[in-house]
């Protein structure tokens, strides 16, 4: 999730006051929500490449450009980074240069085979300055341009040949001093769109990158190369065969363009979830169904000795931990406790060198969680951070980190990060089972196969949310909503209640369904809305019948029963006012699906009340005080 912009204009544009730098920086400003770990630009001027880049927000780069200007130019590229490989430093910022500084490259995505390519290039005497996969791509393109094409080739051909070697998800943009009138780009599984102007053309991660200059856009397909000049746009596949892009008119206003056309960042991020899960899975297992968590720098032998796991987190992240508990205990047979970080260190917990502490945090800056991790380390525990923000404090103070790749989450109410946290926790559990070689390890491949189908299943839920949105709007004046769930449905009920509290300011409470008859059922009055997350009826250990009994218990006392159930489960219809179905998937993975309707419900209801869904009252995106 990085912001990418490319621009080429002709002399008439210069007369109109357009410069590559102005266009690129304006585009990056609109794309900054996609990543703000660092920013950089490169332009082609006077037969050379001029580049500036700075860690931190775009304002840091602008300050650098003021202090250290670059020449006027009509060809340029720019990048705001959301770090995946390598921390958010100046050195790791894009663009990355190669071919003796005559080629500049920017990138969004993850190049899975960057390590082997780097070894190959090192063997050719290529040197590297950064830890990034992007610099490897730049070096590969430069090596091809300079050697295989013997200087006589085109940048477009060099990009094509390089893309034939790359694996993973990437959007690449390149400029070369020898070819000052073009920007060449490539995309695979990562966003890129062309903007068509008069005497100028644009590239952007999305239309926000150029919406101030043109509303004519061209959508690109998979595995395509695009070469833009001031007066032409040429599209081919990775082997040079001509291809067509689909032109369309952008009717979003600039502000909504930054939200992908959605009314709020929260809605956009709910719809980012298929990609957030897919990106978090990407590159972390091989074709044999073996986990390849190379970035998890902790001695496997130490992990084999772990006899207790404690998950530390707050809020939504803690509910992701609760889901993880069911999966990790089932797969690894290691006792797993989930603790609210702010409670943990004040209860004199039992922690030793065989305890693995897993912190979960989107921001990596939550003070409650950070202080708990510090305490656990002082007690001798090994610590792993599951985090969405590269280079933040909690990963830096942990023994190892497993990053979620959800992209920046702007809305205060966490959605895509939650699903990505659960996904990362599943990967960690599978990895521990694989290391320990227990009875379950033979089933890892099947679980990974089931996980790979989740993004499409989430998309199916998103595409069929109309009735749910209608219900939400009809309930905007409700004063209280209860949520019931059992087993892994229990943390989902807690999360559904939290979403409604956070953004619609409605009293909401999540319960373990079995707990109802031990007191909370007294809350049920005529017309009380109750969401019930029903487990799959499949499997001999299914809790389905028990939860259906819970539905009957509340319905008998007048509750409005709103049910989330698995497609094909007809039995719940007799007891539900409305049923919202999610696709079938194994029980332990169900939270990745059953959560989504509750997110949509909360966002739609809050929107119907006219509230600021992205920045709800009293809250902050990261709670950096205890
Ligand atoms: C979730 O919607 C809330 N914004 C909040 O509960 C959040 O999950 C919690 O503060 C933890 O934040 P973190 O993941 O950045 O540590």
Keywords:
eight-stranded antiparallel beta sheet, Glutamine Phosphoribosylpyrophosphate, subunit 1, domain 1, Rossmann fold, 35% helix, globular, alpha/beta, six-stranded antiparallel beta sheet, single chain, 21 helices, 626 residues
List the total number of helices.
Answer: 21
Largest sheet features = 8 strands, antiparallel
Strand content bin: 15-25%
Bound molecules: 2-deoxy-2-amino glucitol-6-phosphate
Terminal Cα separation, in Å? 30 Å
* Fraction of residues in H or I helices: 25-40%
In the CATH hierarchy, what is the architecture of the largest domain at level 2?
4-Layer Sandwich
CATH superfamily of the largest domain: Aminohydrolase, N-terminal nucleophile (Ntn) domain
Structure write-up:
The chain has 21 helices and 24 strands. It is an alpha/beta fold and 626 residues long. The chain has three domains: 3-250, Glutamine Phosphoribosylpyrophosphate, subunit 1, domain 1; 259-452, Rossmann fold (3-Layer(aba) Sandwich), CATH 3.40.50; 463-619, Glucose-6-phosphate isomerase like protein, domain 1 (Rossmann fold, 3-Layer(aba) Sandwich). Strands 3-2-4-1-10-9-11-14 form an eight-stranded antiparallel β-sheet. The chain has a six-stranded antiparallel β-sheet with strand order 5-6-7-8-12-13. Strands 16-15-17-18-19 form a five-stranded parallel β-sheet, with helices on both faces. The radius of gyration is 26 Å and the shape is globular. The model has no long low-confidence stretch (mean pLDDT 93). The structure holds 2-deoxy-2-amino glucitol-6-phosphate. Residues 314-317, 361-363, 366, 369, 412-414, 502, 622-623 line the site of 2-deoxy-2-amino glucitol-6-phosphate.
